[in-house]
Design a protein that fits this description.
Chain lengths: 442, 381, 498
């Protein structure tokens, strides 16, 4: 636990404001803070509700409570449609229930999704913790805010903004725009609330922090908690001098690599790129990658569960998973998902299909800073980006006549600029997918 | 005259150049990769005249009623030496601006005088620099009808912002008066963007002016004030906007204009878009010849072009004749992933064309769509 | 839009004729819709220039606002016409018995349906409603009440138009584009004249493409509003306005100028008026989709509620939504969109075909059925979960665990158990998870027959409307309860100033 976390925890019991916001960049110890705060706030007379945004986030938190805070009686409030993972079902210290009545009398901490908490009525507790509060749409906060007197809001301001499938322009400019994040609306209506930020990323390696901080967190910069020497990624099997070998070796050395495929407009379903992504994952595992890390200095052999493949579109993730299931049985256990669903997750190595790869033009969706931020900030050791040549030209060609609404300035970095920053950084880490070994571009 | 100027002059022909304005600069950001537009604007060619000679519809023609209304609103706002403006700016910038000296740069030189732009620019420049150099506590200035310079592809473009406000924190603000309304706090977001992109040109010009005199460009704020009619009245209201994005993207697109020589190199020698006006001033250039000359400069047509380019209908006809997918909209163009023409796409779909290696994925998807549609037609699905 | 639509767009561009997308009409179409064209004055916000409206194609009513001075009398006439139409929908009502926790109630058997040319007209009416509903009511002047009431209805109708699947106020270009695909871009489809030329070309035209080209001719083309084009402004309106102002200044009779203006606008609007009825006839000929009845029933419920609100409270809706109202509105819009999409997929083979090309559905033939399959439930009791296999040649972008719906058995639910790629096709093993009843009282109807061709779509997420807090319970996070009365942002700034 770092200084900043300790200072926030000390403040909680005597807080005179009704809320407190903690901005937490990737891997800055958000879960630790949430768990400690819940421990501190759970009182004998009243449980502390914890409101997260997705079922997997809730399951993750519950698991953490059970492991690190075994003295707390933890309850999992769940919807009937969701199947709670077996390890949690089997855990003796965890109560699982679909109705609040079954849990509120006996639990210290009750964890559930905002969607589920919105169905709870006629209750009010002294404190609540809202996790991933920047992912939470403010209307969800409206449905749940009656449940607590005070609340701790924790979240990552660099992630994806909430979205809706319907036209929401009419709400623009409202202090309570239901499309804004819970934190944005909370602060617009309560300008005096204290806002803290956690200044250290314990997840991201020193190779990643300056870029991610500058490109995506211009308003809440942070630094790395680990030293360069703390994080290593090596291979116990020698490579075959293919571009794929080169790309993973480069990433192992520097923390970054861009695997560059020849320019081509492919649309979202670029089979060649999908195969490149899977090929990289395969080589990583086939060469028995070994990681060490300051906290656990003993060597760890990289397993499928340590690797994630990130995409922009769901259909891309589906496609890659289908290819994986069919042709790469040895990769079973790798996470393949969209930026949306990878929010809040952590892996040792990530392989990212660049959102702009193979596109004919950029669009607001593909340019969104949060999307690229999520994809490039999930890793502890290395991030390998796969992209087709031509993204810089795509960015230049992007018309910049987006609609403007008053008061729309946000905490989030500008996507166009952030994309350029990441691209400029990757230029020094580019491996040409067709090149002979040892002839690195850039 | 530089060789670039000479080459652009050949492209333009006999007509005098039309200088860049904030409006044409703003259009740069709407379709930045259209080389045709970049070259024609850089050469100062009258696009409306080209369009008229080619018998094209003129979607950008200005309505006299709109102009009159805009002018009436502007007069209302700047009446009595800017009196209605001061309290609005005070509120929009949250500052104490008890009174302001108001200077109408228009009064320098007469409106018809050819040299008045240069004169007004000199006047603007001296006013701005003297305000900027004096002790910051004394001055609040509203400069009406100022004239600024901006270097665009090596040329001086004169720009005429509505108002420049200077206040005692030593910061300049660009103020734009626009006649579209703010209704219950909301405006047409596309009109706002267009206004801010124009304002971005003024901000850049003002920064250039300060920098030339060794002053820090940050003295020009990226907060721009739009003054609009409020609700259903002609009462003005002022709204501050962060124009950071527009400023950044415009300056980036201006930087790209350095590619002009490269674009000119691609043209056949002696290519010109001259209308060859006869003694009566009427164009005599054969239309076919003009269209052929235009065709040597590649365009990037999208259906959205009609909102900002006089030549949109010409480029549309061209795109349709070439059966380009882009003429059907960005969605179709996106869906077809790099297949440029309808003929290729349909031939691949119908199996009349063997897909190249990099067309296999899209061909498979198109053929599946075709199969599903056929099932639908025969009532299987 | 899907790859299928893109393909059809290319086919249409290739042949020069529009293609039918959906065979079904997804919005209820009234026997007597109120057709309404609105033109706005260039310049001032929401100042009307003219309105043409009516329920009879042969007898449109034309209302023209004077070039300067008050528009109240013109608006009052408009208000009378619109209100008379709306009142007529309240003539009959039906009894709805109590269900669940809702008490028995009455509902009007009809609801207003207003057809306008395009989304821009909807936007114009919204702004007009924002103006008029805050106008002060002057008891001395009966017109003022009518005008305020018109503002109220315009706000109601334009709010409804934001809800996907609502049929209270429909822009014709969007309505047509739901059912036909043309060979021009979506931007060009926003023009009623060219869109209709593609879909239903005049007899003399060789193709829809030729007809559209002809319809674009600046000499004859009339924009469907609400904005007038610059040429019309400069060449026709401006001179008349000048003449009107001169006559006014010199104290002369303005009646002749007004008559001329009326003639001018009648001629300007008539072509669009005829196109609207042409479009109406085309749409009316389409068979109505099954679920559109449910949506129209809902439309009538909402309309009845609004009438009750007007009778009991009647205060104008606030200019901008308060916190709770905004969240409720967003929930309704999202719920409406999801329900409309799900119902279209269930009703319409074309909608399903589109989903198949986007990977949100697949179609195939039932090859094997395991009707006896059971699972052990959480309590240990066996549960009947029949399974069957579907062979599909669609590109499958789904995974085991995916929940599905099927148009043929609307109450059933399915889950993908296993996907086995074969040489030419893919075998998908499905389990029926809902709608099959219990093992002791099974519902065999949900079991498909071997050889049947079925399309399975991704099941819509289960959605529960959250319990909305009352306005005076707005939590502190959202600024607490708002001030008591909706704000009158107009502050009596009268229209007369313009």
């Amino acid at each position: 636990m770092d200084q900043a976390t300790r200072a926030i925890l000390e403040q909680l019991p005597t807080l005179t404001h009704r809320g407190i916001v903690v901005d937490s960049p990737p891997g800055a110890g958000k879960s630790t803070l949430v768990a400690r705060a819940a421990d501190a706030l759970a009182q004998s007379s009243a449980p502390c509700p914890v409101i997260a945004q997705t079922n997997s986030q809730v399951d993750h938190l519950v698991r953490r409570f059970a492991r690190h805070h075994p003295h707390l009686r933890t309850a999992r409030l769940t919807a009937t449609e969701h199947t709670v993972p077996h390890d949690l079902q089997a855990h003796p210290g965890i109560q699982i229930g679909t109705r609040i009545e079954a849990l509120e009398k006996t639990a210290d901490v009750i964890v559930g999704t905002a969607m589920k908490w919105a169905t709870v009525t006629d209750r009010r507790w002294p404190w609540a913790i809202i996790d991933e509060a920047y992912q939470m749409r403010s209307d969800m906060l409206l449905w749940t805010a009656g449940l607590f007197d005070r609340a701790l809001f924790v979240g990552d301001p660099g992630q994806l903004d909430p979205f809706s499938a319907v036209e929401t322009d009419r709400f623009q400019g409202l202090f309570h725009d239901p499309m804004n994040s819970a934190v944005a609306v909370l602060l617009a209506n309560n300008r005096d609330l204290p806002v803290h930020s956690l200044p250290v990323s314990w997840r991201l390696p020193p190779s990643a922090v300056p870029l991610i901080s500058d490109a995506f967190y211009p308003f809440t910069p942070f630094h790395a908690g680990s030293r360069e020497a703390d994080r290593t990624l090596t291979f116990s099997i020698r490579g075959m001098r293919t571009p794929t070998d080169e790309v993973i070796e480069h990433a192992a050395r520097t923390g970054w690599a861009l695997f560059e495929l020849p320019a081509r407009i492919t649309g979202p379903h670029d089979i060649e790129a999908f195969q490149a992504v899977l090929g990289i994952a395969e080589r990583l595992l086939a060469r028995r990658a070994i990681t060490t890390c300051g906290e656990t200095p003993e060597a760890h052999v990289l397993l499928p569960g340590d690797v994630a493949i990130g995409t922009a579109h769901r259909s891309q993730a589906h496609h890659i998973r289908a290819l994986l299931a069919r042709h790469y049985p040895q990769l079973h256990g790798i996470t393949v998902d969209t930026a949306n669903r990878l929010q809040g997750c952590e892996f040792r190595v990530t392989i990212v299909l660049h959102p702009l790869s193979g596109r004919g033009d950029a669009s607001a969706f593909h340019l969104e800073a949060g999307r690229l931020c999520v994809l490039t900030s999930r890793h502890r050791h290395a991030c390998i980006v796969v992209a087709r040549v031509g993204i810089a030209e795509l960015l230049d060609a992007h018309p910049s006549n987006d609609p403007v609404h008053p008061g729309a300035a946000s905490k989030v970095a500008d996507g166009w600029e952030a994309n350029h920053a990441v691209l400029a950084h990757l230029a020094g880490h580019t491996i040409d997918a067709r090149a002979q070994y040892g002839r690195r571009r850039g | 005259m530089s060789s670039l100027d000479a080459r652009l002059g050949v492209l333009r022909g006999t007509a005098p150049p039309i200088p860049h304005s904030a409006r044409t600069l703003a259009a740069l950001t709407a379709n930045p990769t259209c080389d045709r537009r970049s070259l024609i604007d850089a050469a100062g060619i009258d696009k409306a005249a080209l369009a008229a000679h080619l018998n094209l519809p003129q979607p950008l023609r200005k309505s006299q009623l709109a102009l009159d209304y805009g002018l009436a609103f502007e007069h209302k706002v700047t009446a009595q030496a800017g009196a209605p403006l001061v309290p609005l700016l005070r509120q929009a910038l949250a500052l104490t601006l008890p009174e302001a000296s108001y200077q109408d740069v228009n009064s320098v030189g007469s409106d018809d005088d050819k040299s008045s732009l240069q004169l007004r620019h000199a006047h603007t420049r001296s006013r701005i620099l003297s305000a900027a150099h004096r002790r910051p506590s004394q001055h609040r200035t509203l400069l009406d009808h100022p004239v600024l310079h901006l270097t665009v592809a090596g040329h001086q473009a004169y720009l005429e912002p509505d108002i420049i406000a200077f206040h005692r924190d030593g910061v300049f603000h660009v103020v734009e008066i626009k006649s579209f309304p703010v209704i219950h706090g909301q405006s047409d977001p596309l009109k706002v963007d267009a206004a801010l992109t124009q304002a971005a040109a003024y901000v850049l010009a003002l920064r250039e002016l300060l920098a030339d005199d060794g002053l820090p460009p940050e003295r020009v704020s990226d907060t721009v004030i739009l003054v609009n009619p409020r609700n259903f009245t002609q009462h003005p209201t002022a709204t501050p906007y962060k124009a950071y994005q527009q400023i950044k993207s415009l300056s980036r697109h201006l930087g790209r204009l350095r590619r002009l020589p490269e674009l000119l190199d691609k043209l056949p020698p002696h290519t010109t878009l001259d209308l060859a006006p006869g003694p009566d001033g009427k164009p005599t250039r054969p239309r076919g010849e003009l269209a052929a000359a235009l065709a040597t400069v590649p365009a990037r047509y999208t259906p959205g072009c009609r909102h900002h380019c006089d030549l949109a209908f010409h480029c549309r006809t061209e795109a349709r004749n070439q059966r380009r997918t882009a003429a059907l909209g960005t969605k179709v163009r996106d869906d077809l992933a790099g297949i440029d023409t309808i003929d290729t796409a349909l031939a691949l779909t119908d199996g009349q064309l063997h897909p190249a290696r990099d067309q296999k994925d899209i061909t498979q998807a198109l053929q599946q769509a075709q199969r599903i549609y056929a099932e639908l037609q025969t009532g299987i699905a | 839009m899907s790859l299928l639509t893109s393909l059809l767009k290319m086919r249409a561009a290739d042949t020069g004729n529009a293609l039918r997308a959906s065979q079904l009409r997804h919005l209820h179409l009234s026997d007597q819709p109120l057709m309404l064209l609105a033109m706005t004055r260039t310049g001032p916000a929401a100042r009307p220039l003219a309105v043409m409206l009516g329920t009879d194609p042969h007898r449109p009513q034309l209302l023209v606002a004077p070039p300067s001075g008050s528009t109240t009398s013109m608006l009052a006439t408009l208000a009378d016409a619109v209100t008379a139409y709306i009142d007529a929908c309240q003539r009959h009502s039906e009894h709805l018995p109590a269900i669940n926790n809702k008490p028995a109630r009455r509902r009007y058997t009809d609801a207003p349906q207003i057809l306008v040319p395009n989304p821009q007209t909807v936007q114009h009416l919204k702004v007009l409603g924002d103006d008029l509903r805050f106008r002060r009511v002057d008891d001395q002047n009966p017109d003022s009440r009518a005008v305020q009431r018109l503002g109220h209805w315009l706000t109601y109708l334009t709010d409804r138009a934001d809800i996907p699947g609502s049929a209270a106020l429909i822009p014709m270009t969007s309505f047509l584009s739901m059912h036909w695909v043309t060979g021009q871009s979506p931007q060009e489809d926003e023009d009623l004249a060219t869109l209709l030329a593609w879909i239903d070309p005049p007899r003399h035209a060789a193709s829809g493409r030729d007809a559209a080209y002809e319809a674009e001719d600046p000499a004859t083309h009339r924009p469907a509003g609400p904005a007038t084009d610059a040429a019309f402004d400069n060449d026709h309106l401006a001179p008349l306005f000048d003449a009107y102002a001169r006559a006014r200044a010199q104290g002369q009779d303005q009646a002749r100028t007004l008559e001329e203006l009326e003639r001018l606008l009648a001629a300007y609007l008539h072509p669009t008026w005829d196109l609207m009825w042409q479009a109406y006839t085309l749409l009316q000929a389409l068979p109505e989709a099954k679920s559109s009845t449910r949506r129209w029933d809902h439309e009538r419920t909402v309309f009845t509620d609004e009438c009750v609100y007007l009778a009991q409270d009647g205060r104008p809706r606030p200019a901008r939504d308060q916190a709770v109202a905004a969240a409720v509105r967003l929930a309704r819009m999202e719920h409406g969109a999801a329900a409309f999409a799900a119902e279209r997929a269930a009703d319409d083979p074309f909608a399903r075909a589109e989903l198949r090309t986007t990977g949100e559905a697949f179609g195939g033939t039932v090859t094997a059925i395991d009707s006896k399959h059971t699972l052990r439930g959480p309590t240990g009791r066996p549960q009947w979960r029949p399974r069957f296999t579907v062979s599909t040649t669609d590109l499958l972008r789904m995974e085991p665990g995916q929940l599905l719906a099927c148009h043929a058995y609307r109450k059933a639910g399915y889950k993908i158990c296993e996907i086995t790629p074969a040489d030419d096709d893919t075998l998908v093993e499905l389990e029926i998870t809902a709608g099959m009843g219990h093992a002791d009282r099974p519902n065999y109807d949900v079991l498909p027959e071997a050889g049947a061709f079925l399309v399975f779509t991704i099941a819509p997420d289960p959605y529960r409307m959250p319990e909305f807090p009352a306005r005076d319970q707005t939590p502190w996070t959202h600024g607490g309860p708002p001030a008591d009365h909706p704000d009158h942002s107009n502050e009596g700034e009268g229209e007369e100033e313009q």
